[in-house]
Amino acid sequence: MRSKLLFFIFITVLIALQSKSQTIPVGTPALSEAIRNAQLLGQVDSSISFTVLPIFPVKALKVDNPFDPFKSMENEPWRKTDGIYRFHKNKWNVQFLPVIWQQQFNTHHPYSLNDGPMIPARGYQTMISAGFFARIGILSIQLNPEYVYAENRNFQGLYKELPASVWDEYNFLHSVIDFQEKFGDKPYKRLFWGQSSIRLTAGPISFGLSNENLWWGPGLKNALLMSNTAPGFMHLTLNTVKPIHSIIGSFEGQIISGKLENSGYQLNARQDARYINGIVLTYNPRWTPGLFLGIARSEISYLNDLKTFKDYMPVIAPFYKKKNYGENESPYPNDQRVSVFSRWLLPKAHAEIYAEFFKEDHAYDFRDMFLQIEYTHAYLVGLTKLIPIIARPSQFIKFQLEYTKLEQNSANPWRGGGYLYAHYAGVAQGYTNSGQLLGPGIGPGGDLLSVEISWIKGLKKIGIEFERFVHNNDFFNAVIIEPRAKWVDLNISAIGQWNWKNLLFSSKLVFQNAYNYEYYYQPTISENNADYWASGTNTFNFQAQVAIAYRF
């Protein structure tokens, strides 16, 4: 009888805490970026790291409507309601989620980064999402499916004129990673669970089942361990919804166990479901406000191989082979990745600097890791600065720079790093979900330098972005070698975001000049026929991205 009474009191206390576990999905037009900008201006709690996403704005930002965090719609005369329907003394509520319509068009060949369930495709592509959020005490349900249609036109892939050695390496690469350039020969149509979840939330902790996209790390253009390049995947999650404060500082974190999907287009590979276990933890020391230090780890394997608790929770196992399974990483095929990162927020300077360092595979021991820390590594660095416009209060010039390097250098001749995110020991799909990378969309061996200069005011933004995108230099170094044949894109993009009444608009027009597209160098003939650095044939691609979100 006493145990039943204690259980009843426990549940009553939890209900009294009220669940506020609604998220702003990763990649929501305008909102995510605007909130992070607001933190640089000192308008948002400086203990929020923005390195464990999605964010839970009702809890973390203490706002009523997560899709109107700056209350730009609150006092408008045309607005009849705040879009939240409350019942039972505000312990129950329902809210319709924004209807989001994203469109994309590529004229010549696929180009696709950080667009969730949308695929690399030539031609027209669209994604529509809508749904609702409901809360009853500590229980919350977010149903937010996503539908994708892609015209999926044919395009020029790897040229048949390239040597057999190039084609052999190309086929080998795609046998160790399910990273698709093209998704079949027909129009692509898929309905996904999207940013849906069901949760129990009490105080700063939430537990539940989710299909939401995750973003771990400080990067804005790329994340080395978890990004929204691929569709979200079904996973159990235990995570914080706001920083947990203590006498030594504040903490945020998440641990997940989920199921990854195969694309179905990778031939001669084991096709049963894969399992992913991941963890991320961020610490903000009490003595250094604005400094965030983090570590993240994930491991994938085939679901049918798992038998013990240790198999299902490899992220809490030792980092080194010597302390784990000796010479082998595991008795069954698996693949580990780990990253460490930092973000330093400087509100007085309206700026931030950040970095992330990433490694694949288990080192044998600490000595091995220390001696060859460059083996299977990647990194990114970045900074953002908001410069006030003196004559225009609340308006700023934003400068944002980020560099990501995935290209490998051999630790020594007998221990090459190979292709990041691929796997050579049994997990043939590599670090992917539904044929797209869970990490950065630039892909194995890629490097990306991005510079953005823009005008911002709240949710509004107009700017220009310059990018240098080097495609898979590891593939180039293995079989292309010809120094004039690197595949490098130079992109100039016009970007814009705007809000008007209930609507959010976002657009990006990319003018892409691809040097030696698909590594095919065709030199022009000079007058004396002896110009070694004769210009090659460049390929032009234009991409238009347009997104519209209607907020209730």
Name the CATH architecture: Beta Barrel
CATH homologous superfamily title: Capsule assembly protein Wzi
Largest sheet: 18 strands, antiparallel, barrel
Please write the CATH class name: Mainly Beta
**Structure annotation, total helices:** 8
Describe this structure in words.
This protein is mainly β and 552 residues long. The chain contains eight helices and 26 strands. The longest helix has 16 residues, at 2-17. It starts with a helix and ends with a strand.
Describe this protein with a few key phrases:
552 residues; 18-stranded antiparallel barrel; Porin; 8 helices; two-stranded antiparallel sheet; globular; mainly beta; 40% strand
Structure described in brief:
With 552 residues, the protein is mainly beta.
SSE layout:
Blueprint: H1 2-17, H2 31-40, E1 52-53, H3 57-60, E2 84-87, E3 92-106, E4 123-136, E5 139-143, E6 146-150, H4 164-175, E7 188-192, E8 197-202, E9 205-210, E10 215-216, E11 235-240, E12 244-246, E13 249-260, E14 274-285, E15 291-302, H5 309-312, H6 321-324, E16 334-346, E17 351-360, H7 366-371, E18 377-388, E19 396-405, E20 432-433, E21 436-437, E22 447-457, E23 460-470, H8 473-480, E24 488-500, E25 503-515, E26 538-550
Helix pairs in contact: 4-8
